[in-house]
Write a structure and sequence with these properties.
By secondary structure, this protein is mostly helical. It has four helices and no strands.
């Protein structure tokens, strides 16, 4: 498993694309995935019940980078009523004049107090 901590510098060229993290086959991965899926559902429920925080996941990559597959795998484990996916194409002139998170922030729902 890869974990990136705040401030870490990442060089993809130094990551072995054949890395398997010790998994032997797809059945081995499926068992671990099922456990993570159950945990994600529980965490989503806890976030909803608390009503104070939310989770924002931003995926950025070129075409065919695997963003759709990641969304399917991660959000597929969650209650769809508690999720929302927004896609972004080439930035407009207005969007390009701001920092790269500006258009993402516009899509975030505000908390009602």
């Amino acid at each position: 498993m890869f974990q990136v901590k705040n401030g870490d510098k990442i060089k993809l060229a130094k990551i072995d694309p054949d890395f398997t993290d010790g998994f032997k086959d797809s059945d081995d991965v499926d068992d671990k995935t099922k456990k993570y899926t159950e945990r994600l559902r529980a965490l989503q429920y806890d976030l909803y019940a608390e009503g104070k925080r939310s989770l924002l996941i931003c995926l950025q990559g070129l075409d065919a980078a695997g963003k759709d597959g990641t969304i399917d795998h991660v959000l597929g484990a969650m209650d769809p009523q508690g999720t929302r996916v927004c896609g972004f194409k080439v930035p407009s002139i207005e969007e390009a004049s701001h920092d790269f998170l500006w258009r993402i922030e516009k899509q975030c729902r505000r908390k009602v107090r």
